[in-house]
Every structure is written in structure tokens, then in C-alpha cells.
Write a structure and sequence with these properties.
Blueprint (H helix, E strand, L loop, with lengths): L11 H16 L1 H7 L3 H6 L1 H4 L11 H22 L4 H15 L5 H51 L7 H7 L4 H12 L3 H19 L4 H7 L5 H12 L3 H8 L2
Helix pairs in contact: 2-5, 2-7, 5-6, 5-7, 6-7, 10-13
């Protein structure tokens, strides 16, 4: 067990190193905001942007600003690429701002351009992220549509069984609640209403075009009994299956 006093022993070199790390981390905040496409974050640290690059690189203050601007713009392009901006676009924007910096004649003009550069990179990253999210959302919608199509196909193949939401959801690898929500959104019908309507539609065709008895039709379409079949058919078509057959049998 270490002596208690060690916790209180001052490490001057360690403290200096820790302070330096804190300063460096603080100076990186604008870059991380840029990488996240966070406009408010960049605007919130405008005062930092002019000094994000550390110590002067020349005894000439204006020349030092130019060097630091080039360094910062290069860093900004790297973080922009990490945030999703295409490499070619990031390089082109970097070169554009370095070219604009050449036209600045004062330190104040460079500082102003520095902020504009950060905001421009950040907006570009934000646009890239928005486009990516839209694409992912579209892909998710397509994927869910395929899953709903799979659910419908499963229902069609299993009308003769007692279908439940849980059973269908398991077959298409979705949770029951999620399937119910997506199914209603994409078809305008609940899963159970869809099953009922499909069974009645098939029953209509069988009553018109086949010689199967009502009992056989009820059984092969998953109705629990003749009376249940008749009840559901009447609710949907306002007449009984027998009446429908007499009227439409070919």
C-alpha cells in the first residue's frame, strides 16, 4: 500500500505537462466542432480560432499570421474530411482560402478570414452529414418496405394457419410493435385487418370459381369454424357466403 503522503506530493513537471495538455485540448475545440458540423460550436469559440495554432512562427507578426492561417486551414481540411467531406472538396476549399489569405494585408483581415474559413468548412461538413442522413433514411425506408413485402408474402403463404402478429414478426426478423407500426404506415391497414380482408378476397374467388363447400373454404383459409367464416364474410360483404355464391357462381 502506497504511503498516503504520495497523494499530496507535488510533481511540478507533471503539473506543467498536464496544463500544456489542457491548453492543447482547449485549442482543438474549434476543430472538433468543425468535424461535427456544429455551427453554434464554432461560433461559440470565435475568440479561440485566431489562436488555435499555438506559438508565432515568425518575428514578423503579419507573416506569422499567414503561416498560422495556412497551418489552421490545412488542419481544418483534415478534420472536415474526418467529418465526411470528400477529400477533393476539402482540398479545393483549403486552396481557395489560402489563396484568399494572400490578398489580406492586415492581421485583422486574416483573423476575419480565419473565422469565415472555419464556418465555411463547418457548413460544408454539416451539408455532407445531412445528405448522408437523408440517404441512410431513404435506405432504411427501402429496407423496411422490403420487410413489409416479406411479411405480406408470408401472410399469403400461410392463410391456412392461425396467423398472429408475433408469428409474422418473427418470420421477418422484426419486433411485433415495430412491424405493426410500419405495416400500418405502408399499407394503411393493421396486420389483422389485412389478413381478414385477404382471406375474404380469396374466399370470394373460391365461391365464384370453385366447387369447394363453405366448410372446405373456411378450413383452408384458416377460419376457426363455419359460423366464424360466415360472420366475418357478412361483416365485410353485407351478405353471407352462400348468398354470394348463389349470386356470382360461374
Amino acid at each position: 500500500m502506497e504511503p498516503i503522503y504520495l497523494e499530496y506530493l507535488k510533481d511540478t513537471d507533471g503539473q506543467k505537462k498536464e496544463k500544456k495538455n489542457r491548453i492543447e485540448s482547449f485549442a482543438m475545440i474549434p476543430y472538433y466542432s468543425l468535424k461535427d458540423g456544429n455551427i453554434e460550436g464554432v461560433m461559440g469559440c470565435k475568440a479561440l480560432i485566431a489562436s488555435v495554432d499555438g506559438d508565432p512562427l515568425s518575428s514578423d507578426d503579419l507573416l506569422s499570421k499567414r503561416y498560422l492561417f495556412v497551418s489552421s486551414t490545412t488542419m481544418a481540411s483534415v478534420f472536415a474530411m474526418q467529418g465526411g467531406m470528400p477529400a477533393e472538396d476539402a482540398a479545393a476549399l483549403k486552396n481557395l482560402y489560402i489563396g484568399r489569405m494572400d490578398d489580406c494585408e492586415t492581421e485583422e483581415a486574416i483573423d476575419e478570414l480565419h473565422t469565415i474559413m472555419f464556418l465555411d468548412f463547418t457548413r460544408k461538413v454539416q451539408d455532407c452529414k445531412a445528405a448522408e442522413e437523408e440517404e441512410e433514411s431513404s435506405s432504411d425506408a427501402d429496407k423496411m418496405s422490403r420487410n413489409i413485402a416479406k411479411a405480406i408474402d408470408y401472410i399469403r403463404q400461410n392463410l391456412h394457419t392461425k396467423l398472429s402478429l408475433e408469428q409474422i414478426a418473427k418470420a421477418v426478423s422484426l419486433s411485433p410493435n415495430y412491424l405493426a407500426t410500419r405495416f400500418h404506415k405502408e399499407t394503411g391497414s393493421t396486420v389483422q385487418d389485412y389478413i381478414r380482408d385477404l382471406r375474404i378476397d380469396v374466399a370470394q374467388t373460391m365461391l365464384k370459381d370453385s366447387d369447394y363447400t363453405l366448410t372446405e373454404i373456411a378450413r383452408c383459409l384458416g377460419f376457426g369454424s363455419n359460423s366464424h367464416f360466415i360472420k366475418v364474410f357478412r361483416e365485410k360483404k353485407t351478405i353471407t357466403p352462400k348468398q354470394y355464391r348463389l349470386k356470382h357462381y360461374n
